[in-house]
Amino acid sequence: MKADSEIINRDHPFNLQKAVETLERSYIIHIIQKNDGDKVKASEMLGIRIQMLEQKI
CA–CA separation, 6 vs 54, rounded Å? Predict the structure, then answer.
């Protein structure tokens, strides 16, 4: 049996983690735009710290 590190291929077109990250980033950008670029308001609306928001985008 292969180790987890051998199984994960982030370049594979059906990589779930990569798909979730892409969707999450798009959603965060959408929320920032709805808040006229105010990342603090966006982070509050999303219920995450501003540092986490910055990390995710």
Answer: 29
Please indicate whether residue 24 or residue 1 has the higher confidence score (pLDDT). Answer: 24
Task: Give the Cα separation of 8 and 17 in Å (integer).
Answer: 10
Contact status, residue 57 vs residue 29, Cβ threshold 8 Å: yes
Find the distance separating the first CA and the last CA of the chain, reported in whole Å.
Answer: 35
Measured CA to CA, the distance from residue 57 to residue 53 in angstroms comes to: 6
Question: How many other CB atoms are found less than 10 A from the CB of residue 46?
Answer: 17
Q: Can you tell me the distance from the alpha carbon of 41 to that of 28, in angstroms, rounded to the nearest whole number?
A: 12
Q: What pTM was computed for the model? A: 0.72
**Residue 47: HSE in the Cβ half-sphere, 13 Å Cα cutoff:** 0
